[in-house]
Design a protein that fits this description.
Elements (H helix, E strand, L loop, with lengths): L1 H5 L6 E4 L1 E3 L25 E3 L5 H21 L3 E6 L16 H7 L15 H28 L5 E8 H4 L7 H5 L11 E5 L1 H6 L2 H15 L6 E4 L10 H15 L4 E3 L3 H7 L8 H4 L2 E5 L9 E5 L2 E5 L5 E5 L5 E5 L7 H13 L6 E4 L23 E5 L6 E3 L1 E4 L7 E4 L9 E4 L2 E2 L3 E3 L4 E4 L8 E5 L4 E5 L8 H5 L7 E4 L5
Helix pairs in contact: 2-4
Length: 495
């Protein structure tokens, strides 16, 4: 602890209600109704301590005091986390409320709950509320022990809750026992939330709903919350890092002050680096429309990048560097009056030349509708296939496909749709229960069913910037009939 303080590291002491099963007294274990002990899925397993067992809770308090004394004696900040305290639920839905100590604390015979899934009776809910009150009382005793050992030194207390289990939508009453109202602010200084099952599945909607529910139930404001963005247990699951980046961005959007990526060995193993965007980079796009309707007179130049090597035999080998074309425009032909010329100059100055990107409507291609002879035909929800449901995924980026979908089709990511124009369908039926996320992401409230086809229709703009920090315009040459050159170039958005 002294070394950590010298290196300016902050240490949070964490204590869970778990013990290595082989080293735990049988009387301390939570148990299912048939007597089975609460065992986690780790190999070898850990077990859960019963909040009703005085000796088990006394042991936790003794450990908590020892942790606190280490920080106190080193003159370091005392930060103490109660990590994932809960009544364990078996994979088959049985809740472990039935150890001997719990039965005694509940006053004798307990009501049977064979499966936590689905609605519960009034009597069952009353028992779950009683279990929640008992859990909250045990954590309060733990916090009190820490503060007593601190001997007047400031203490920051933190509660870590695992949302996918305690807010399982198939077990709506589980929160009575495992997210008790006795934890409501200010029982702890900080509410720490984790949701790695949802992160692994890319289910941002579940995270949003879970955090909203936990916030509403316990009353901790955003500035008193921390977020744990998950972990990547094995090297072959590297895809999870990308989901974690999305979860981190969502936590930043909620103004969460502390976001944790764990653990260091996994970060080092996979070489994961998170580049936090700076404020000026976040402001590099102005969500405003180019102010002049340029019409069909504008020049549009789609550009690819292809490396071509000619061999000694005269054959060519070609490598396409870009998956999508980059567009260039000349908006000069759209400037038709001195008033529009002044408008253009003001817009150029407001964007600080090439510094800030903005929206631009391509007059030749701004709709998902494939009607080649009339691109102004309104979009429909069946225009473009944007993905296939797998029963877990909730997010699908908008895309437009060019060419033969069965052959060498080219998919274009649509990052700047016109929000009011977006329509979505699942298996041909116009869908509800979705929202338009940042950069053209369709986010469903619940995951579409496995093998369901997700389609969408939309109008869209192109993110562009001025090609140069200099704009050469002259009123005299304009009045003489010269056409100004206003080069624009597409900017790549990264969802």
């Amino acid at each position: 602890m002294t070394r950590a303080k010298a290196m300016d590291f902050t240490v949070i002491f964490s204590l869970s209600y778990e013990l290595f099963d082989a080293h735990c007294w049988n009387a301390w274990k939570q148990r299912a109704e048939n007597g089975d002990p609460a065992l986690t899925g780790w190999d070898p397993p850990s077990t859960l301590l019963s909040p009703a067992q005085p000796a088990a809770m006394g042991y936790l308090q003794a450990v908590a005091r020892a942790f606190t004394a280490i920080a106190r004696d080193a003159g370091a900040a005392i930060k103490f986390q109660v990590g994932e305290p809960w009544w364990w639920t078996m994979p088959d839905g049985r809740i472990c409320l039935y150890d001997a100590a719990a039965q005694a604390a509940f006053g004798g015979a307990l009501v049977s709950i064979a499966d936590m899934k689905g609605p519960k009776t009034e009597v069952q809910n009353a028992m779950l509320d009683q279990a929640g009150a008992m859990l909250a009382a045990s954590t309060a005793d733990l916090v009190a022990a820490v503060k007593a050992e601190a001997l007047g030194a400031p203490v920051e207390t933190l509660l870590l809750a695992y949302l996918p289990s305690i807010l399982d939508e198939t077990a709506p009453e589980a929160k009575r026992a495992n997210l008790p109202v006795g934890w409501a602010s200010p029982a702890f200084d900080i509410l720490q939330l984790e949701d790695y099952d949802w992160v692994i599945a890319g289910n941002l909607s579940a995270t949003r709903r879970g955090i909203e529910l936990a916030t509403q139930r316990l009353g901790y404001p955003a500035e008193a919350q921390h977020y744990f963005a998950g972990f990547v247990l094995t090297a072959d699951a590297r895809f999870i890092w990308a989901n974690m980046v999305d979860a981190i961005a969502a936590a930043q959007a909620r103004a969460t002050p502390e976001i944790f990526i764990w653990a260091l060995p996994q970060v080092a193993r996979d070489g994961f680096t998170y580049f936090q965007e700076q404020e000026d980079a976040m402001d590099a796009f102005d969500d405003v429309q180019f102010p002049i309707a340029i019409g069909a007179g504008a020049m549009v130049s789609p550009q690819f990048s292809t490396d071509i090597v000619t061999t000694l035999s005269g054959h060519e080998k070609r490598n396409s560097d870009w998956a999508d074309a980059r567009l260039q425009f000349d908006a000069g032909p759209g400037v038709r009056s001195e008033a529009e010329l002044r408008t253009l100059i003001a817009f150029f100055r407001a964007r600080r030349g090439a510094a800030k990107a903005f929206r631009f409507t391509d007059p030749y291609d701004h709709s998902s509708n494939d009607m080649a002879d009339n691109i102004d035909v309104p979009p429909t929800a069946l225009d473009q296939i944007i993905g296939t449901g797998d029963g877990e995924k909730t997010r699908f980026p908008l895309v437009k496909t060019y060419g033969d979908a069965e052959g060498e089709a080219q998919k274009r990511l649509i990052t700047r749709p016109v929000p009011s124009s977006v329509l979505v369908a699942v298996d041909g039926v116009v869908a509800a229960g979705w929202m338009l996320g940042p950069l053209g992401q369709i986010i469903f409230d619940t995951p579409p069913a496995e093998n369901s086809q997700i389609t969408a229709g939309f109008l869209f703009d192109v993110p562009v910037r001025f090609a140069s920090d200099r704009l050469d315009l002259s009123a005299s040459t304009f009045l003489a009939g010269d056409i100004a050159e206003v080069p624009l170039i597409e900017v790549r958005d990264t969802p």
